[in-house]
Amino acid sequence: MDNVRSHPQGQERGHSPLLRTEFTLENKQIESARAHVSTIGWGELYLNGAKVGTEVLNPGVTDYEEQTLYSSYDVTDQLFSGQSNSVGLWLGRGFYDKSIHDWTGLGSPRGILQLNVEYNDGSTDTVVTDTSWTADGSPITKNDIYDGETYDAQVEQPGWASPNFDDGSWSTVTAVQGPSSNFDWHPQRLPPIKVTNSIRPVDISQNDGDWVVDFGQTIAGWVELTIDGAREGQDITIEHAEVLVDDGELSHDTGNLNMEDLRDADATDTYIAKGDDVETYEPRFTYHGFRHVRVFNYPGELSPDDIAAKVVRTEREANGRFSASNDDLNDVHHMVTWGLRTNTHSIPTDCPNRDERHGWTEIFRGASTEYYEYETEKTHRFYEKWMRDHRYDMRSKGMVAVTIPDQVSEEDPNWSKSTVQCVWHMYEHTGDKRVLADNYPMMTQYVDHWQSRATEEDREHIVPAKYNTFGDWLAPTTEEIENDPAMLNTFAHYQTTKTVANAAAALGKSNEARMYENRASTIKTAFNNHFYDETTNTYGSGDMGTFAMAMHGGLVPKGAEQAVADELASTIRNEYDNKIGTGTISTQGLLMSALMEYGYEDLVYHLVSQPERPGWVYMARNGATTLWERWDSDTQIGSGMNSFNHRLWMEVGEWFYTKLVGIQPATPGFERVLIKPVVPTELEHASAETETIRGKIAVAWEQYTDEFVLEVTIPGNTTGEVWVLANHQSAVYEGDTCPAEDATGVTYLRHENDYAVFEVSAGSYTFHSDSTPVDKRFDS
Ligand code: BGC
Fold first, then answer.
1. Of 29, 224, 659, 735, whose CB count within 10 A is highest?
2. 402 C-alpha to center of ligand 1: Å?
């Protein structure tokens, strides 16, 4: 690609310039034409009057000084041979030139293009951005990712991207440097951001002469507004917010938008009308997190046909389905899917509303849920890019910051462990060894970095408390860093070291696998020496999270697991009133293994399904359509850090699929799939299906007073290990009458912990067991 980047001369108006040139192609048949373009922050390419491609907010965000993405388009059908053609770029600031305080931008927007044309006689033509291009201001007089956009329709220049446009009054462009003297280009392989759907209002009301609109769903995107009869120069303004407030309190029916929690983001778009009969506006170079908007100065009455919310996100098909006989859980699942949908914008973002939208690394915990919910192939490309971002941003000696792309200097081992754990999630869901190989050097450097910190103090293999920045973030009981920082650190250190040992083994690096495995077992011993009290079966301060971490990490000494689980269960009952007491680090542990394995399935089900705060169902019953940032977001309006749409607490989605319905990769890439549903006494049925890399896996279970039914579909080239709740194997039938062990494709393996375990080959099966399911009610 040519290394001249065009930038408009003396033309900074709103940092959203139009750039254009014209060129004549030879009078020969065009065999193929490809345009390669990069615009940073964001930009759109136009050829002969029409926009190329359907993506928006393109290209994806990167640490531009290190690496920048370009898009390639087949434009063969958009060019004219033997005639004048025009090409244009419309630039926006995006992440490259964003406004807010400490997240400073890098420079003004710029673009580069190379258009390669090949004729049918083999000859070629090339068009590039150079100083013959011209530039002018666009109708977008202000644009900022956080603050919003102002569009002045009075200064539109119709035809600017078409041939024979008179650009005599436009300035010439200057060639400027790329983002740094030493950055890499990468083709944008991850799925682009698109407008994926449109939502009409569920309610429109008036407040003080303005229109307040409720779309019924918290989204990320913008609003499309149709305006009838505005006078020339009339400015119509749209403010965006996630919730409504009344006197600083969450309220579902006032017309006051909660703009306070947006902090420095204005989230306001303004359209200045040109005075046509009907005008339609939607922004180009910003996006907002919102459910409600307030429209100021709208001419006439705003009707549902005049306004729609456009959902804007990294485009992927939703492939997962989950449903249970408890509707609260279905609502929580809805919140999970919308939480993912609205926080996926070329990187996983924390929340789309306030002045952040960063790749906070602790949110990698949503990755596994994402593979269940969305197209595997696109999700994989999305995370491949984010892991490359990690590789670029790793500092010397293996240090990784808490946001990727790197915006801050802090580190925390439970945040940056995405460096290792996210790669492993990718591998588990796909079996893709290349992704392990590509990231293995980074993973080893990362764990070696923490190992060097773990040997700084006398407590060898314990990562000192001073390296903890955020604690068990947003735990409802102990705020932030209070609880056991060195224990939190060392948990992460063990977990990542163990994962690296597994990665080394998967890559056939047996010496390294042994070395990391040995190191992990030394860390485990040190962890238990320092934090485990075998007389009381407790860990550290004895908070719910400390147990959960130890059990989830596999750190509990062999033989002590049941005693620790019993102690945790009684701690939950006696000290936490049978409610969640964990923060973002240990909640996953609580759900995913700590208790599930030791007879407390009903207790975990209760923690997930009970309707009081803190809990997911509390959010759902209080109007949430996405997951809140804090367990108590409803009481934290104006606290300085509060979103009603955050990726935190996403692990409940993973729990639905892997535990409640019980679909897990038994081997990486689902070559062997484990179907092991947990069956809470109170739930009648649960089902899920997911499109894995091997095809669709579907599971549905239903329990009656004297019967348990499990339907399973296993895709081709896959073997299933199916756990059927049953008192004894002879009580299990496949189909209507056939004893399961005699059914085609089914082999009986063993009876274990109230389940009969079978191996099945590809196909669909219905297992019936006529035994009464075991009651695992906990003592509440
Ligand atoms: C972000 C979180 C992050 C936290 C740490 C918040 O503003 O939204 O994702 O973990 O900051 O400080």
1. 659
2. 9
Our answer on whether the CB atom of 356 is closer than 6 Å to any ligand 1 atom is yes
Ligand 1: does its nearest atom lie under 6 Å from the Cβ of 350?
yes
Q: What helix, strand, coil percent values describe the chain, rounded to 5?
A: 30, 30, 40
Q: Give the pTM.
A: 0.96
- pLDDT recorded at residue 12: 44
Q: Is the peptide bond before 614 cis (omega within 30 degrees of 0)?
A: yes
pLDDT above 90: residue 779: no
At residue 10 the predicted structure's pLDDT band, cuts being 50, 70 and 90, is very low
Residue nearest to atom 4 of ligand 1 (CA): 360
Q: Is pLDDT larger for residue 456 or for residue 732?
A: 732
Q: Which residue has its alpha carbon closest to ligand 1 atom 1?
A: 350
Any ligand 1 atom below 6 A from CB of 641: yes
136 CB less than 6 Å from ligand 1?
no
SS3 per-residue string spanning 81-147: CCCEEEEEEEEECCCCCCCCCCCCCCCCCEEEEEEEEEECCCCEEEEECCCCCEEEECCEEEEECCC
Q: Is 351 in the pocket of ligand 1 (CB under 6 A)?
A: yes
Residue 306: C-alpha distances to residues 150, 211, 375, 453 (Å): 19, 12, 33, 59
At 8 the pLDDT is 47
Count CB neighbours of 292 within 10 A. 23
How many Cα atoms sit within 13 Å of 343 on the Cβ side? 33
pLDDT above 70: residue 233:
yes
